[in-house]
Recover the amino acids of this structure.
């Protein structure tokens, strides 16, 4: 008898412009799927536009912008938010993403807001 297994989808991330793109570089070195606001052509776009992009792409938003906490609290169906404190360093953010990837899959992040 074979045991059914659940297909686990790795978390995909989107980096808001409030976080240095060096985080994207470091995460890519760890084989993470990540996009950035700059790469998506959304630099200086309003927060709701950036939030909608991350949701359309089904990506957890990594941000230091507290406005996204308000937006995320108004919508339970978002792909997830990783809110980083203002002084969070590159290493801290990368380690947090590694921990999230080990603990959750993309579906389990839906509607979650994690704090670093």
């Amino acid at each position: 008898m074979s045991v059914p297994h659940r297909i686990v989808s790795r978390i995909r991330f989107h980096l808001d412009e409030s976080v240095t793109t060096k985080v994207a570089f470091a995460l890519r070195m760890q084989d993470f799927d990540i996009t950035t606001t700059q790469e998506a052509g959304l630099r200086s776009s309003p927060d709701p536009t950036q939030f909608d992009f991350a949701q359309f792409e089904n990506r957890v938003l990594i941000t230091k912008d507290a406005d996204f906490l308000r937006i995320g609290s108004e919508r339970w169906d978002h792909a997830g938010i990783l809110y980083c404190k203002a002084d969070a360093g590159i290493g801290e953010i990368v380690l947090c993403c590694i921990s999230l990837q080990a603990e959750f899959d993309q579906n389990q992040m839906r509607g979650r807001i994690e704090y670093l």
